[in-house]
Amino acid sequence: MENHLRVTNIEVATILHEVADLLELKGVRFKPQAYRRAALAIETLPENVADVAREGDLDEIPGVGKGIAKKIREILETGSLGYLSSLREELPEGVQHLTRLEGIGPKKAIALSRELGIRTVDDLEAKALAGRIRDLPGFGEKTEANILASVRASRTATERRLLGQILPVAREIERRLASLASVRQVSLAGSIRRRKETIGDVDILATSTRPEEVMEVFATLPGVERVLVRGMTKTSVVLSTGIQVDLRVVEDGHFGAALQYFTGSKEHNITLRKLAIARNWRLNEYGLADLATGRTVAGEDEAGIYRALGLAWIEPELREDRGEIEAARAGTLPDLVGYDAIRGDLHVHTRWSEGAHSIEEMAKAARTLGYEYVAICDHAEGLRIARGLSPGRLADQIRDIERINRESDGEFTLLSGTECNIGMDGTIDLPDGTLADLDVVVASVHSGFKQSEKEMTERVLTAMHNDHVKIIGHPTGRILLSREPYRIDLAAVFDAAAALGVLMEINAFPARLDLSDVNARSARGAGVRFSLASDAHRRENLRYMELGVATARRGWLSAEDIANTRPLPELRRLLR
Ligand code: DGT
Ligand code: CA
Ligand code: CA
Ligand code: ZN
């Protein structure tokens, strides 16, 4: 079957989500969850669903049953779904807008639409303000007030985005502003400077001899769709991708204080401000001032503020009020792993399984990044949707890697590896004999996320007790903004990892960042060591490593905690 439409995974998932919503509105049971599950599976599928459809059975995708597989084929072939159209016709217009609001379920939405003819959120707000909702059967004054509150919340709430998606955009804006002759200092601030895993909006701070010009350039950047606020000190815009960016232009004398203030976090700032108050000082975005004398104690540079408060400078990634201020006072802040400390990537894919590039292409790209080694970890047989390798194919791949290493100048080493699958009972989808031939064995859970905490914990512990397993890949299975982590007793896993010398991966793929900052920190507390990995599916993805380092830093990790900050001979010892 030739496919001219090139329907994307997101388009398929969007249709399935809408079917789920509409079935739910009709009060159909169970089916909506099945459609949601399938939508999620398609959204998070690393390869194009159209390719899967061409080469295999769609119902091999975990979460996709036979019935829905047929519907997906229809979408791929025609670009739309007849079933969805018929569902749409059954419902009163506008109902779907209403159900997006917190606290309004399908039943209420249908009642509002049928009884009052409400089609939009604006109309809903108007009718609530007019007191017309309270008299509907099943509503009442309290529900009416709650509806108003939900409408307001929906107007202020901004969707969060992945750090990995926003960081390049933010840097590009920073670069353009920095290139203006009148701009003296410019820095990212807020959550993006702290490298938080998701971003609400982007905050940028600058000083300039011509604030007007800076604001003009900013408000007319390519990609700006709307200007929300336009002023001399603050301009806020929304990019066509829906991301809000706030630019503040301050005086040079206040830059450090403003940078400190607008970097946050809010919680960090509150604790810091208490330290100032204890000295009868005041800390705000203009500086640190002595209230008794009116004298400015600090404000020009950020470090000066921390110094004046008796603290070591605190890296932005740590500023979450998780003990960093106490550590800065006691001089016990960790020596955080540097962004340039990584010597190689321990989990990348190639064309042999679901990757886009050859082993040689990945190796070349890794060398360009200054790496000394990279581990080729394609999927094993158990993961058929990812075209996992059989033991025979893997043996071919090992021979290929050995050949490439032999022909190389010796400055760079390819490690042979696998990302094998942890089965429902903890068994690995490759025989021990094959595993023994590999340099790096990453084992990950890719299915059966619904197991109980006890089952999942035992499953992963069983895999860790396999002598060949060296690394647990993306240990909680979460997909940021989309899939919750599976239930697992991480404390038990971390204790076992420390005892067995199994590394925990910090998977740097933008939607994973798994382990998370907080989990990485507790793992470190249990004595665990880590592997940082991009999980690259194409050579450009190797750069995701930066996000993994950011997560490690936010988890208070040092270079010593991370296996792949070591030169190859030492890494090999750790992997034995
Ligand atoms: P986001 O945008 O939700 O990812 O997170 P942030 O941390 O960037 O938050 P945002 O954009 O609302 O504010 C930027 C920074 O400004 C924040 O990290 C700290 C500072 N800030 C904002 N509101 C307050 C506040 O009420 N008190 C204090 N002390 N600082 C605040
Ligand atoms: Ca922000
Ligand atoms: Ca902001
Ligand atoms: Zn992988």
TrEMBL record:
It catalyses: 2'-deoxyribonucleotide-(2'-deoxyribose 5'-phosphate)-2'-deoxyribonucleotide-DNA = a 3'-end 2'-deoxyribonucleotide-(2,3-dehydro-2,3-deoxyribose 5'-phosphate)-DNA + a 5'-end 5'-phospho-2'-deoxyribonucleoside-DNA + H(+); a 5'-end 2'-deoxyribose-2'-deoxyribonucleotide-DNA = (2E,4S)-4-hydroxypenten-2-al-5-phosphate + a 5'-end 5'-phospho-2'-deoxyribonucleoside-DNA + H(+); DNA(n) + a 2'-deoxyribonucleoside 5'-triphosphate = DNA(n+1) + diphosphate. Residues 56-75, 96-115, 131-150 form the Helix-hairpin-helix DNA-binding motif class domain. Gene3D superfamilies: 5' to 3' exonuclease, C-terminal subdomain, Beta Polymerase, domain 2, DNA polymerase beta, N-terminal domain-like, DNA polymerase, thumb domain, Metal-dependent hydrolases. Pfam families: DNA_pol_B_thumb, HHH_5, HHH_8, PHP. GO terms for cellular component: cytosol. InterPro entries: DNA-dir_DNA_pol_X (IPR002054), DNA_pol_lamdba_lyase_dom_sf (IPR027421), DNA_Pol_thumb_sf (IPR037160), DNA_pol_X_beta-like (IPR002008), HHH_MUS81 (IPR010996), Hlx-hairpin-Hlx_DNA-bd_motif (IPR003583), NT_sf (IPR043519), PHP_dom (IPR004013). The keyword Nuclease applies. One of its GO terms (biological process) is DNA repair. Residues 344-424 form the Polymerase/histidinol phosphatase N-terminal domain. Its EC number is 2.7.7.7, 4.2.99.18. Signal peptide: none annotated. Keywords: DNA damage, DNA repair, DNA replication, DNA synthesis, DNA-directed DNA polymerase, Exonuclease, Hydrolase, Methylation, Nuclease, Nucleotidyltransferase, Sodium, Transferase, Ubl conjugation. Residues 7-320 form the DNA-directed DNA polymerase X domain. Its cofactor is Mg(2+). It is found in: Cytoplasm. Its main location: cytoplasm. One of its GO terms (molecular function) is class I DNA-(apurinic or apyrimidinic site) endonuclease activity. Repair polymerase that plays a key role in base-excision repair. During this process, the damaged base is excised by specific DNA glycosylases, the DNA backbone is nicked at the abasic site by an apurinic/apyrimidic (AP) endonuclease, and POLB removes 5'-deoxyribose-phosphate from the preincised AP site acting as a 5'-deoxyribose-phosphate lyase (5'-dRP lyase); through its DNA polymerase activity, it adds one nucleotide to the 3' end of the arising single-nucleotide gap. This is DNA polymerase beta. It comes from Methanoculleus submarinus.
